[in-house]
Structure formats: structure tokens, C-alpha cells
TrEMBL record:
Biased composition (Low complexity): 14-28
Region feature Disordered, mapped onto this chain: 1-88
Residue ranges of domain SRP54-type proteins GTP-binding in the record: 358-371
The UniProt record lists the keyword DNA repair: no
Membrane-topology descriptor: Peripheral membrane protein
Subcellular location: Cell membrane; Cytoplasm
Binding residues for GTP: 192-199, 273-277, 337-340
Protein name per its UniProtKB record: Signal recognition particle receptor FtsY
Catalytic activity: GTP + H2O = GDP + phosphate + H(+)
Classification via Pfam families: SRP54 (PF00448), SRP54_N (PF02881)
Gene encoding the protein: ftsY
Organism for this UniProt entry: Comamonas guangdongensis
EC numbers on record: 3.6.5.4
Length: 385
């Protein structure tokens, strides 16, 4: 299913080659970014970051450091395999470290000698404390009891492994790769509350896309906060991609201009960074809906992805955000950041149970390599290791 690649000619860097006529057509002048330093030697995740739907035989060669996940779209070069495995292994270590706070309180439940009601009660408390939510906790407990019975398990330590299986199954519907290339450009709108990690995640995503030769155009649709535009500009510079940015003005207009420019310049991806807002700020939620509508005016099929970035550290509050933003925007995917050091990593189970929107990426730190594709099995294993 994932072995198809988009047929894409090798275009030179668009920042250097955007035809003047096309550039002139764009309503807002783009700021071509100069070459900047690369943060890491190569993308830690490679092509597994997204799926390219067309023309497997015309696929570009895999970068040597592509990682392996169930989302992987093509067999890596044989020589690349050890590095690939190393990259994913190192990610697993960071994920484990990040989830330790959540996992350790659950793990202590299994240190006893007996499987009895007290164990299940303790587990229920631990799952609720990890912000797994009542419904997902109940689902996991019932599923676990069934597994224990079926396998005739008698050791509490073995129950932990069964819980990891139950959790992986619950999380599986969240595992889905981001598709790039079905539309040119693929327009991705990114929303979230203030400080959730939107701009940082867009920057990391841009780097991974640029590293794979995808042409990206960034839209700084946060027209209120100068620092937000500057932050996005830094990412644009680092990755030598273009940015459409405007001081003040209407964020929907900036988004419209960016999508129009992205079409005219045949960019592969347009990423729209919106200002942070709370779901309770109804006028700002209306503004988001307007951005989405106006993007669709610039390109009928867009936005192709509407992503919500949530801070994993906010637990059940993050679930409330998912519900509210989904109701307003019909989300297509999530990015869950700041799972490092949180005791509330159970929120992914709550999302899977109550609003199963695909989790494209999860973040466990501020560095580029700290954002990766989501794998249900990896997550469950890292949490309960
Ligand atoms: N520990 C940790 N910090 C992160 C992670 N992702 C982002 N951050 C940090 O969170 C802070 C806020 O990130 P931004 O990307 O500015 O958040 P934003 O959602 O764009 O913020 P606004 O534009 O104000 O709404 C920054 O200091 C990031 O470095 C993560 O996975 N872990």
C-alpha cells in the first residue's frame, strides 16, 4: 500500500529559479531565503515521514539515514539499512526517556506477585493519573483481563507485556502517514493553542521535506505576532525555502496569497502557520474557519491537510482541544509535541478512544530529530518498557 511514489521531476531549488513572471503574479512578494546552516547531517526519518502516492518506479533514491517504521514507503538501499535501524533505535531511546514519567507509575503496578483485583484497581488509578481518560482506561482494563484469561497468564510482569499489546491495538487507528504529492501543491494548514509547538513542528517538517528535495513554501499567517513571523523566517532561511509574510493584515489573505503563489510556482508543499488561539476564543476560531474557506478559494481541493498541534503535557485538556478544533475545522491529522518529561502520555489512548484522528508526528524535545512519525507499537513499547 505504501510502495507508491509520486513522479516528480528533479527541479532545481525554486528559491533560485522562480520565474520572474510567476513571481510577479504573486500578490504578496515572497522573501527568498538565503542558504543557511543545516541542523543535522541528514533527515533522521527520511521518506517514512510521509507517503508519496504515485509512480514507485520513478521514486527518488532513499536518503541513507531513512528510518524504518510501519509507515515506511519503500525498501531502503541495502547499504542504508544499518544506519536506518540505528536512527530508529536512537529515536526509541529518546521516546522511552521522554515517556519515562508516564510509564514508571504504570509499571510499578506490575511489581507485585499476584494478579488480583488490587492490581487492576491500581492499574486503573495509574492509567487515569496518566490522563488516559475514563473510557480508554475501561477499554484497556477489559481488554487486558480478556488477554490475561486467554493466555492463562499468572505473572504480573507478563501482564505488563499484555497491556502493551492492548495499548498498541487501541492506538493503531492513529497510525497513518502524511501523504505528499497527491496534489501539487499539497496545502497543509496548521493550527493549535498558543505555544503548542506549531512553528517548531512546521520548521522540523520543512527541514525533512527540503532534505528530500520537496519544494516548500511557508505562509506566515500569524500576522499579529512579529516574533512568530521571525521564527518562521529563521526556519525558511535554514532550509532555503520561500516564505510569504506580511505585517498586520488579514491572515486569510496571506494564506490565499501563499496558496496562489504555491500554485504558480509549482511548489510541492505549502505550509500555513496560523496564530495560536484557545478554542474558547470564538472570534479567533471563526478566523480559522475563514482561513480554511479562503484557502479553498485559492485552490478548490485545498487545504489537503488540516493539522492540530497539541502539547502532550496538557493531557485531557489536549483532548478537549482536539474535539473543539475538529468540530470547527474537520481535522485530518495531529502532531503531539512535548511528550518528553510528561506524566500525561496516556492522552494518546484517550484520543484513540474518543476522537481517533491520525497522529502524523510526535515530539519529545526541541531538536529536529526529536520529532518523528508515530508508531502505535513503538509508543506502547516505549511507554511500558
Ligand atoms: N520540550 C519540548 N519542547 C518543545 C517541543 N516542541 C516544541 N517545543 C518548544 O515549545 C515552545 C513553543 O513552540 P512554538 O513552536 O513557538 O509554539 P507555537 O505553537 O508556534 O506558539 P505560538 O505561535 O505562540 O502559538 C518552543 O520553546 C519550542 O522549542 C517538544 O516536543 N518538546
Amino acid at each position: 500500500m505504501f510502495s507508491f511514489f509520486k513522479k516528480k521531476p528533479d527541479l532545481p531549488n525554486a528559491a533560485e529559479t522562480a520565474p520572474a513572471a510567476e513571481a510577479a503574479q504573486a500578490p504578496v512578494p515572497a522573501t527568498p531565503a538565503g542558504p543557511g546552516p543545516q541542523d543535522t547531517p541528514a533527515a533522521a526519518a527520511g521518506t517514512s515521514w510521509w507517503r508519496k502516492p504515485f509512480g514507485a518506479k520513478d521514486a527518488k533514491p532513499e536518503p541513507a539515514t531513512s528510518s524504518v517504521t510501519q509507515n515506511f514507503v519503500a525498501a531502503p538501499e541495502p547499504t542504508a539499512k544499518p544506519e536506518t535501524e540505528n536512527a530508529r533505535q536512537s529515536w526509541m531511546e529518546r521516546l522511552k526517556a521522554g515517556l519515562r514519567k508516564t510509564g514508571s507509575s504504570i509499571a510499578t503496578v506490575f511489581t507485585g506477585t499476584q494478579i488480583n483485583d488490587a492490581l487492576y484497581e491500581e492499574l486503573e488509578d495509574a492509567l487515569l493519573m496518566a490522563d488516559t481518560g475514563v473510557k480508554a482506561t475501561q477499554h484497556l482494563l477489559n481488554d487486558l483481563k480478556r488477554r490475561v484469561k486467554e493466555t492463562k497468564t499468572t505473572e504480573p510482569a507478563a501482564v505488563k507485556a499484555l497491556l502493551a499489546d492492548a495499548l498498541a491495538d487501541l492506538l493503531l487507528p492513529l497510525e497513518k502517514p502524511l501523504t505528499i504529492g497527491e496534489h501539487v501543491p499539497t496545502v497543509i494548514m496548521v493550527a493549535g493553542v498558543n505555544g503548542a509547538g506549531k512553528t517548531t513542528s512546521i520548521g522540523k517538517l520543512t527541514k525533512h521535506l527540503a532534505d528530500e528535495g520537496q519544494t516548500v513554501l511557508l505562509a506566515a499567517a500569524d500576522t499579529f505576532r512579529a516574533a512568530a513571523r521571525e521564527q518562521l523566517g529563521v526556519w525558511a532561511n535554514r532550509n532555503t525555502v520561500e516564505i510569504i509574510s506580511q505585517e498586520g493584515g488579514d491572515p486569510a489573505a496571506v494564506s490565499f496569497d501563499a496558496v496562489s503563489a504555491g500554485k504558480a510556482r509549482k511548489k510541492d508543499v505549502v505550509l500555513v502557520d496560523t496564530a495560536g488561539r484557545l478554542p474558547t476564543q470564538l472570534h479567533l476560531m471563526e478566523e480559522l474557519k475563514k482561513i480554511k474557506r479562503v484557502v479553498a478559494k485559492a485552490e478548490g481541493s485545498a487545504p489537503h491537510e488540516v493539522l492540530l498541534v497539541i502539547d502532550g503535557n496538557t493531557g485531557q485538556n489536549a483532548l478537549a482541544q482536539v474535539r473543539a478544533f475538529d468540530d470547527a475545522l474537520q481535522l485530518t491529522g495531529l502532531i503531539v509535541t512535548k511528550l518528553d518529561g510528561t506524566a500525561k502520555g496516556g492522552v494518546l489512548a484517550a484520543i484513540a478512544q474518543e476522537r481517533p484522528i491520525p497522529v502524523y508526528f510526535i515530539g519529545v524535545g526541541e531538536k529536529i530529530e526529536d520529532l518523528e512519525t508515530f508508531s502505535a507499537r513503538e509508543f506502547a513499547q516505549a511507554l511500558l518498557s
